[in-house]
Write a structure and sequence with these properties.
With 317 residues, the protein is an alpha/beta fold. The protein has two domains: 127 residues, Rossmann fold (3-Layer(aba) Sandwich), CATH 3.40.50; 145 residues, Glycogen Phosphorylase B (Rossmann fold, 3-Layer(aba) Sandwich), CATH 3.40.50. It contains 13 helices and eleven strands. The strands form two sheets. Strands 2-1-3-4-5-6 form a six-stranded parallel sheet, with helices on one face. It has a five-stranded parallel sheet with strand order 8-7-9-10-11, sandwiched between helices.
Length: 317
């Protein structure tokens, strides 16, 4: 019988982000399938914080990150309600460096942890030797400000792509193809697969798109939307860098660039395109590509990310 403390991972909409972290949590805890007064509880995602506060637990912890229609930075009601739940029902809440650190500045039960990406799915990486094509990946929502990245990439004159495609007809065709594949599975007595909402493509297809391009561009302003919020760096940015792509970014929240290999661009599309081309003209692409992958793999490894949270949880109990 394991001597590790029991842990119940409470998750709903964010199950995808938990999938590659679960094996790492199992190194620090005995994972259980239901909450109980003898087990620790880790609430995973902003959408389950309120529900988790009502569940039995030896001690409750929470992981919060931007998204899922919760914006505590711009929505005072959301911020007030989440802080009240954390103060009353949780021993600690974990957040990434980024906009949530502005929202929860001064809160007593907040700890930072590094975001993680699925390194196994990202794959072995590919060292870029030229910077001849650019990519932007995001969902079509206001906070992504993706038209700005598209405009910058267009101004450079380099080959470029916005993914997933923004053509509604193409997105609808993609969704119908997934539904058709599920009907075929059911007819052959196989389990249907959960379909992502229209506008999202499968993770493997997205990763394959990173590999088709040499650089990645995400330049977005903070649109101060009451619902939508972005992270300091997007998951797509981290994943693209982990494949070896050269990464360009804008410091939307004025929190500083914590990644040595990521190039910062100004918000103005003309100036950003000019800066990108200046960098391209002087960059040792192969060397920087290898360094970018190395930094992303180290900074956003699930092992490092989970270890930071597990260590803090065990300190508190």
């Amino acid at each position: 019988m394991s001597d590790l403390p029991e842990l119940y991972l409470h998750v709903r909409k964010a199950a995808h982000f938990l999938a590659w972290e679960r094996p790492q949590f199992a190194k620090h805890f005995t994972l259980v399938d239901a909450p109980s007064p003898s087990a620790l509880l880790l609430s995973f995602g902003p959408d389950v914080l309120e529900e988790a506060a009502r569940l039995p637990a030896r001690a409750r912890f929470a992981v919060l990150f931007p998204g899922f229609s919760f914006n505590p930075l711009r929505n005072e009601t959301t911020r007030r309600e989440q802080l009240a739940l954390i103060d009353e029902h949780f021993a600690q809440a974990f957040i990434n460096p980024g906009p949530l650190e502005l929202a929860y500045a001064g809160a007593s039960k907040i700890s930072f942890y590094p975001f993680s990406i699925d390194l196994a799915l990202v794959g072995a990486g590919r060292v870029r030797t030229r910077l001849d094509s650019l990519l932007h990946v995001s969902h079509d929502n206001p906070q992504k400000d993706w038209q700005r990245s598209e405009a910058i990439m267009t101004r450079t004159g380099l080959a470029m792509e916005v993914f997933p495609p923004r053509d509604p007809l193409e997105l609808e065709r993609h969704a119908r193809a997934l539904d058709r594949a599920n009907r075929i599975r059911r007819l052959s007595f196989r389990a249907a697969r959960d379909r992502l909402p229209v506008g999202y493509y499968g993770h493997r297809q997205t990763v394959a798109t990173y590999y088709r391009h040499d650089g990645f561009v995400h330049v977005a302003r903070d649109v101060k939307h009451p619902e939508f919020i972005d992270g300091k760096y997007t998951a797509s940015l981290m994943e693209a860098g982990a494949t070896g792509a050269i990464v360009f970014w804008h410091d939307s929240y004025g929190l500083g660039n914590g990644l040595e290999t990521v190039f910062e661009l100004p918000l103005d599309t003309r100036l950003a395109a000019e800066r990108l081309l200046e960098i391209r003209g002087s960059l040792d692409v192969a060397r920087h590509s290898a360094l970018t992958r190395e930094e992303m793999m180290d900074t956003f490894s699930p092992q490092r990310s989970v270890s930071a949270r597990a260590t803090r949880m065990l300190e508190l109990v």
